[in-house]
Amino acid sequence: MLEIPESLMIAKQLNDTVMGKKIIEVESEHTKHGFAWYTKTPQEYRHIMEGKTVGEACGIGSMVEMMLDEYRFVAGDGTNFRFYPAGVKLPEKYQMRITFEDGSSLLCTVQMYGTMSLFQPETYDNFYYHTAKEKPMPCTDAFDPAYFRSLRDEGGENISMKAFLATNQRIPGLGNGVLQDILLEAGLHPKQKIGRLRNSDWIRVYEAVTGVLQKMITGGGRDTERNIFGESGGYITKLSKKTVGKPCPYCGNTIQKMTYLGGTVYFCPACQKIR
Prior knowledge:
By secondary structure, this protein is an alpha+beta fold. It has 7 helices and 11 strands. It has 2 domains: 4-134, MutM-like, N-terminal (N-terminal domain of MutM-like DNA repair proteins), CATH 3.20.190.10; 145-267, Helicase, Ruva Protein, domain 3, CATH 1.10.8. It is 28% helix and 21% strand. Helix 1 packs parallel to helix 7 and helix 6 (176-186) packs across helix 7. The longest helix has 20 residues, at 199-218.
């Protein structure tokens, strides 16, 4: 699923592969999917996108935005990009295909759910999009300790660390996936109530958020996710579906998992004790 490291990595790859290319054919809703959402009809996607030249792409939270003159094409969390050079056989199932004048294609496929939106920014009323555009992203100058403290103050004392970091768009693009290694680095359990944390704990949380995300970004995304060429990211996750049941890299205790707040969380029972 798209989170901050993947959206930034995919945007960079799109800029390297399709920026400056002219779109000659667009096909949406190729394979029907009950949880694939669009903002236009298939005819409107074709009419608007065909003939346009791809501008710069950028990662915004858990979305990837691609400029098409006065329009924006945005793929959200759950939508995967795959790039296919000219002459390479395309898979049978996909939700959207964007083909360029050199014969290469960019496909969008949806797993559980996902969006492929086409709009003009001044007319698009979407809370998640505008929040992701407005809020500073971790690892930028604006995401400093003072800003992080303001997020803490608005969270309330009775919510858990997972709820604080990964819900209500407090930090767009920081979701249940990247959360795991951040909390391990900070030595905090996903269920830990934030009201019981000391100031020294909050310093560790801030350093874990910015430090772990920077490693994930530098590594080209997590090894549990894939880029536009179908390759796994270079950051090796410490807590994920790949490591459950294995020894914790810090203490050797067995990594466990549980369901919490609508998703699976992984943790080390020794390094991440609840206070």
